[in-house]
C-alpha cells in the first residue's frame, strides 16, 4: 500500500503551491466532480489506480479521490517551531538509568554523538567514574540532560532560547540562542556544551532545516545538549542511547502511562522506582530532574574501564 | 583648603580650559589608539572564526570577558559615589573630582555594555534581547539597569558641563569644528537665573535617582553569579560584596586619574594635597569594608569545607590560583590599607601608586571570582581534553580586553582634551563665596 501524503499544516506549504491549489479548485468547481485533484490529474495524464480514498475538501465536504492522483510530499519537518516548543500533548517523558548494569561501554555515547553530530570532547552523554567516599564502591554514572521540572537553565535564559515543553523536555532553539552561556553557568549537572567552533558536518546535514527536536544541524556560537530525542519518539522509536546500550541501562517512557522500556524489558515505572530504590541527582538543589537512577547494587562485573576509547 | 583665594576668575578659566595635547599626550593617545586597533583586529578574528579563538571551553565557559565586564561595571560606580553621594552629603572638597569621576563612570559603563556583546557567541542576534526578552532572567535586569545608569550618568555629566560651555565657546577659535561642537551642545545656555534653577533642580533629582540605580547595577551584576548553584557564587552576601568592591576600585581609579590630570594639566592649585589626603582616607575605609566581605566570602565556607566548596577553596588557597589570590589580597587590599593609613602615604605620589595597586588588584580579583568557580563543577571534569580543565586566556582575549580598557581610557583622554576636566564655573563660584572669609 502506498503511503498517504503527510498531512501538513498550512504554514509549511509554500505559498505558490497553495495558490495553485486554490486556482485548480476554482476551475474544478465548474465541473461536476468537486475535487481539484481529478481535474489536475487529468491534465497531467495520470492513470487512475481504481483505489479511492476519502478526503475532506477545503469547503468542508467529503470527497473521494483516486489514490494515484495523490502525490507524496518530499521530506520536510512535519511540525513548526511553535509546535516543537509546545511539545507532545499528553506525554510526560521520563528516564531511568540503572547503574547496576553500566559497564562504561560508551555505546550510548557513540550512538548519541553519531546521531547528533557531537564532537568527542563535547559529549552530551557523559559517563563518570563515581565514588561517594574513600571506602565506598566505585561505579559508572552516565548522565544525560536531566530535563528538570524546575530547570535553572530555563530560568536564566534571557531570550527564551531554552524552554520547558509540556511533555517535560527541556529544549534548545539554536536559531534563537544568543550564546551568552548563562545556562551553562546555571546548570549544576554540567550537561550543556557550546559550539565554540564551526561544527564539522557532512554537506547534506548542513543543508537540513534546523529543528529543535533533532538539534540538527548544530550551529556555531550556540549551546547544545541532550534533547531526549523527541523526533525518535514521534516516529515511535526510542532515543538513540536507549536502543544502543547492550546492557539495557537506559529505560525511557511516559510518566502518564507509568511505563518505561529499555527496548527489551518493559516495566511499570512506579514499581521499578519503588522496588529498586530509585533516586535523582542533587535532589537538594530543588531542580526536580526527570531522570532517575537505580543504585549500583548486585553488580556481577568488576569496576574497570571497558570502553575502547582511552581515558581523557 | 590650601587654595589661594586671590586667584581671579579669569585666571581660573585660563587654567582650567582644555589644552592641546603635549608630546606626552600625543604619545599616550597614539598608544591607546594602537591598543584599540589591535583589540579590534582580534575581535575581527573572533567574529570570523567564532569563540574558538578564546581559551574558554565547556567548563570555563565564562572567562576574562565576563570578569572584565564586572570590572567595568564596578569602576563605573564611582560616578555615583563622588558626584551623587558626596553632593547629597555636602562634601565641600568634591568639586574638582566630580567631572573626573563622572567621565570615568560614563566611559566604563559604555565599555561594559560593549564587552558583554563581545562575549556573546551570536552578537548579530543582539536584538533578540529586545524581541524575545524574558524578564525573569538576571541578564535582562542587567540590560535594564545598565542602560538606565548609562543614560543618567551621561545627563549627570552633561548638566554641570552646560555652565562651562559659554567659556568654551568664547575661548575657542570662531568657526572651528570645536566651537561648532560646543555651540551644538550648549548654545541655548544663557546662564539666566531660571536656567540655573532648573539645572540645579535636575542635578539634585539625578543625584538621588542615581544612587539606587548604581547600587542596582552592581547588585544585579553580582546576581548573574549568585543566582546559580555554583561553589563560590552561591552566596546571599554577593550584592553587598560586589558593591563594596566596586566603590573601592572606583575610588582607586579616581586617585589615579587625579594624579595624572594634576600632572598633565598642571592643576596643583585645584587638585590639592588635601584632595589626595581625603581620597586616601576614603580608600582605606572602602578597602577595610571590602576586606571584611572577603573574609565573609572565603572564611565562612572554608570553616565548613562542604564537599562542593572544597575544590574551589583549595584551588584559591593553595592550588592553581593561590599565587594570584594571595597577591590580590595582599597588594590590592592590605598594602593600600597600611600605606594609606599614614599621612605620608596619602601624599600624591604614594597615593597614586596605591590607587594603581587597588585597580589592578580589583581586575584580577574579578578574574578570581569568575574562573576558579567555573572550574569547580559539581560533577567531576572527566573525559575531556586537557585544555578543557584549565583556563588561561589566548592572545585574542588579552588583546580584546586590553583594547577595551584602552578604549575606556581613550574616551576619558579625548573628553579631557575637549572639555575642562575640573568644572570651571563651580570652581569660580566656590572661590567667590570663600573670598569674604579670607579678607
Largest interface, Cβ cutoff 8 Å:
A-B, 44 and 46 residues
For the sheet with most strands of chain B, the description reads: none
Radius of gyration of chain A: 24 Å
What is the straight-line distance between the termini of chain B? 15 Å
Count of DSSP H/I helices of chain B: 18
Which structural class do you get from the secondary structure elements of chain A?
alpha+beta
* Integer tally of domains of chain A: 2
Give the low-confidence spans of chain A.
1-32
Assign the CATH architecture of chain B: Up-down Bundle
CATH fold descriptor of chain B: Formate dehydrogenase/DMSO reductase fold
Estimated share of beta-strand residues of chain A:
15-25%
CATH topology of the largest domain in chain A: Alpha-Beta Plaits
Summarize the helix and strand pattern of chain A as letters.
HHEEHEHEEHEEHEHEHHEEEHE
| CATH superfamily descriptor of chain B | Formate dehydrogenase/DMSO reductase domain
- What shape does the CA trace of chain B take? globular
The span between the termini of chain A is 51 Å
Please render the helix and strand layout as text:
The complex is a heterodimer of chains A (312) and B (439).
Chain A: H1 15-28, H2 36-43, E1 52-56, E2 62-66, H3 81-86, E3 93-98, H4 107-116, E4 126-130, E5 139-143, H5 152-156, E6 162-164, E7 170-172, H6 182-186, E8 193-194, H7 203-206, E9 223-224, H8 230-234, H9 240-244, E10 250-254, E11 259-261, E12 266-268, H10 269-275, E13 291-294
Parallel strand pairs in A: 3-13
Antiparallel strand pairs in A: 1-2, 3-10, 4-5, 6-7, 8-9, 10-11, 11-12
Chain B: H1 9-16, H2 23-49, H3 64-76, H4 78-88, H5 95-119, H6 128-131, H7 138-162, H8 165-171, H9 177-186, H10 193-226, H11 238-264, H12 273-304, H13 307-317, H14 322-341, H15 348-374, H16 386-389, H17 395-418, H18 424-438
Amino acid at each position: 500500500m502506498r503511503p498517504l501524503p503527510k498531512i501538513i499544516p498550512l504554514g509549511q506549504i509554500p505559498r505558490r503551491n497553495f495558490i495553485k491549489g486554490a486556482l485548480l479548485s476554482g476551475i474544478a468547481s465548474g465541473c461536476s466532480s468537486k475535487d481539484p485533484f481529478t481535474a489536475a490529474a487529468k491534465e497531467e495524464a495520470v492513470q487512475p489506480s481504481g483505489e479511492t480514498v476519502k478526503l475532506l475538501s477545503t469547503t468542508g465536504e467529503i470527497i473521494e479521490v483516486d489514490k494515484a492522483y495523490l502525490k507524496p510530499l518530499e521530506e520536510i519537518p512535519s511540525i513548526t517551531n511553535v509546535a516543537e516548543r509546545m511539545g507532545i500533548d499528553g506525554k510526560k517523558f521520563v528516564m531511568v538509568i540503572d547503574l547496576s548494569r553500566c559497564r562504561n561501554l560508551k555505546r550510548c555515547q557513540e550512538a548519541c554523538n553519531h546521531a547528533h553530530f557531537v564532537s568527542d570532547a563535547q559529549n552530551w552523554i557523559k559517563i563518570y567514574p563515581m565514588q561517594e567516599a574513600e571506602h565506598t564502591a566505585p561505579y559508572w554514572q552516565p548522565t544525560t540532560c536531566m530535563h528538570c521540572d524546575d530547570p535553572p537553565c530555563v530560568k536564566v535564559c534571557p531570550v527564551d532560547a531554552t524552554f520547558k515543553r509540556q511533555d517535560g523536555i527541556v529544549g534548545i532553539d539554536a536559531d534563537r540562542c544568543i550564546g551568552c552561556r548563562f545556562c551553562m553557568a546555571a546548570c549544576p549537572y554540567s550537561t550543556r556544551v557550546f559550539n565554540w567552533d564551526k561544527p564539522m558536518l557532512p554537506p547534506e546535514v548542513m543543508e537540513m532545516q534546523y529543528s529543535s527536536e533533532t538539534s540538527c544541524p548544530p550551529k556555531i556560537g550556540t549551546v547544545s545538549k541532550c534533547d531526549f530525542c523527541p523526533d525518535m519518539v514521534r516516529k515511535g522509536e526510542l532515543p538513540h542511547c536507549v536502543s544502543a546500550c547492550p546492557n539495557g541501562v537506559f529505560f525511557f517512557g511516559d510518566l502518564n502511562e507509568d511505563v518505561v522500556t529499555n527496548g527489551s524489558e518493559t516495566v511499570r515505572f512506579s514499581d521499578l522506582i519503588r522496588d529498586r530504590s530509585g533516586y535523582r541527582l542533587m535532589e537538594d538543589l530543588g531542580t526536580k530532574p526527570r531522570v532517575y537512577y537505580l543504585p549500583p547494587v548486585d553488580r556481577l562485573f568488576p569496576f574497570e574501564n571497558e570502553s575502547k576509547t582511552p581515558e581523557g | 583648603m590650601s587654595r589661594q583665594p586671590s586667584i581671579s576668575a579669569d585666571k581660573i578659566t585660563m587654567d582650567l580650559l582644555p589644552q592641546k595635547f603635549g608630546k606626552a599626550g600625543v604619545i599616550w593617545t597614539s598608544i591607546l589608539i594602537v591598543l584599540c586597533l589591535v583589540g579590534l583586529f582580534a575581535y575581527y578574528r573572533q567574529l570570523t572564526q567564532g569563540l574558538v579563538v578564546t581559551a574558554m571551553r565547556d567548563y570555563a565557559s565564562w572567562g576574562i570577558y565576563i570578569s572584565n565586564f564586572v570590572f567595568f561595571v564596578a569602576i563605573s560606580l564611582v560616578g555615583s559615589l563622588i558626584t551623587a553621594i558626596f553632593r547629597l552629603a555636602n562634601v565641600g572638597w568634591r568639586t574638582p573630582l566630580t567631572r573626573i569621576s563622572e567621565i570615568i563612570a560614563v566611559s566604563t559603563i559604555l565599555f561594559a555594555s560593549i564587552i558583554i556583546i563581545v562575549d556573546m557567541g551570536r552578537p548579530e542576534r543582539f536584538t533578540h534581547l529586545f524581541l524575545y526578552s524574558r524578564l525573569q532572567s538576571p541578564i535582562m535586569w542587567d540590560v535594564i539597569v545598565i542602560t538606565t545608569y548609562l543614560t543618567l550618568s551621561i545627563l549627570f555629566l552633561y548638566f554641570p558641563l552646560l555652565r562651562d560651555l559659554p567659556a568654551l565657546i568664547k575661548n575657542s577659535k570662531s568657526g572651528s569644528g570645536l566651537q561648532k561642537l560646543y555651540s551644538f551642545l550648549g548654545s541655548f545656555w544663557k546662564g539666566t537665573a531660571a536656567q540655573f534653577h532648573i539645572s540645579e533642580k535636575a542635578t539634585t533629582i539625578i543625584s538621588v535617582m542615581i544612587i539606587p540605580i548604581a547600587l542596582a547595577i552592581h547588585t544585579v551584576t553580582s546576581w548573574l553569579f549568585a543566582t546559580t548553584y555554583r561553589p563560590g557564587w552561591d552566596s546571599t552576601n554577593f550584592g553587598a560584596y560586589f558593591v563594596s568592591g566596586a566603590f573601592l576600585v572606583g575610588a582607586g581609579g579616581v586617585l589615579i586619574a587625579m594624579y595624572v590630570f594634576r600632572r598633565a594639566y598642571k592643576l596643583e592649585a585645584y587638585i590639592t594635597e588635601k584632595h589626595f589626603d581625603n581620597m586616601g582616607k576614603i580608600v582605606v575605609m572602602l578597602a577595610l569594608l571590602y576586606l571584611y566581605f572577603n573574609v565573609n566570602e572565603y572564611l565562612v565556607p572554608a570553616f565548613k569545607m562542604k564537599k562542593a566548596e572544597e575544590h574551589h577553596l583549595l584551588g584559591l588557597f593553595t592550588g592553581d590560583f593561590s599565587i594570584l589570590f594571595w597577591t590580590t589580597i595582599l597588594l590590592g587590599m592590605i598594602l593600600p590599607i597600611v600605606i594609606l593609613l599614614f599621612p605620608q602615604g596619602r601624599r600624591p605620589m604614594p597615593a597614586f601608586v596605591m590607587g594603581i595597586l587597588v585597580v589592578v588588584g580589583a581586575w584580577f580579583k574579578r578574574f578570581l571570582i569568575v574562573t576558579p568557580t567555573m572550574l569547580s563543577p559539581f560533577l567531576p571534569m572527566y573525559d575531556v581534553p586537557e585544555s578543557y580543565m584549565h583556563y588561561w586566556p589566548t592572545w585574542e582575549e588579552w588583546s580584546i580586553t586590553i583594547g577595551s580598557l584602552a578604549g575606556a581610557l581613550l574616551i576619558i583622554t579625548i573628553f579631557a582634551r575637549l572639555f575642562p576636566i575640573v568644572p570651571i564655573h563651580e570652581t569660580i563660584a566656590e572661590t567667590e563665596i570663600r573670598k569674604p572669609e579670607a579678607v
